[in-house]
Amino acid sequence: MASFCSLTLILFSIFTFSTSIAHSKTLKRDVKALNEIKASLGWRVVYAWIGDDPCGDGNLPPWSGVTCSTQGDYRVVTELEVYAVSMVGPFPIAVTKLLDLTRLDLHNNKLTGPIPPQIGRLRRLRMLNLRWNKLQDVLPPEIGDLKRLTHLSLRFNNFKGEIPRELANLPELRYLYLQENRFTGRVPAELGTLQNLQHLDVGNNHLVGTIRELIRIEGGFLVLRNLYLNNNYLTGGIPAQLANLTNLEILYLSYNKISGAIPTALAHIPKLTYLYLDHNQFSGRIPDAFYKHPFLKELNIEGNTFRPGVSPVGAHKALELSDTYFLV
């Protein structure tokens, strides 16, 4: 009898909890913001956004791409994922009124214009994905106010100007994708202070400067695994200090104007797996230590002026060609 009463109490509690969620009201601020966004979108999105409440009203489900959660007596919008639906026009500024957003994904649309400075309001945002749009202008420094951000993808847009140093104010940032834009200037060395940054891709821009300038902050980039600097206008040489980035697995330097010899120290990065040095102005010879590296799978050195006559050492299939093969 006691166990029956306990089971009844549990079922009653679950029913009561479910009922309270079903009858929780969506915060008016979020309802208004989503309806503003709805009014600005094309039919591809609007046809799936039925009803007045984006979180659903009991009879109707939540709007497609909208995720809500309950906070006290209200529901709030925590995720907005509207991608690959040919959304056109400027970045919908009403998005910045959804103050409880943790995830914003508008990738693969046709958004134009700048990211508004009001983006800094989204203090709970952890993932921001705007890749494959037509966004342009400079990045607002307010993006550095998104202190909880772990993933930032702005690749394949038309952003210009310098990469803002305010990105170094994002202590949780792990993945930063800025490739395929029109950024100019230098990659901020301050990014090296991000203690959680694992992936940095600034390839295919118009960036200048040297690797030495990028890694000048002592103890920087300690957990960085992937570094993409390809297809820019970097000059200078590869400093031996780059070997201090002991967690590097991918180093992509192709299509720059980097010159000089390849330091042997680079071959002692313990986890280095892919190294792309092609189409630069390197000279000298490839240190034998590269051919003995236990993890190195690919080494691309074509399009340089390395010295002829260096015989490869080791069993790496990707390294069985002599340096003379890559002479230009």
UniProtKB/TrEMBL annotation:
Keyword annotations from UniProtKB, A to Z: Leucine-rich repeat, Repeat, Signal
One Pfam family of this chain: LRR_1
PANTHER family for the chain: OS06G0587000 PROTEIN (PTHR48059:SF30), POLYGALACTURONASE INHIBITOR 1 (PTHR48059)
Protein name (Swiss-Prot/TrEMBL): Leucine-rich repeat-containing N-terminal plant-type domain-containing protein
Compartments (UniProt record): Cell envelope
Major localization listed first in the record, in broad terms: other
Top-level taxonomic group: Eukaryota
InterPro entries associated with the record: Leu-rich_rpt (IPR001611), Leu-rich_rpt_typical-subtyp (IPR003591), LRR_dom_sf (IPR032675), PGIP (IPR051848)
Source species of the chain: Hibiscus trionum
Signal sequence range: 1-20
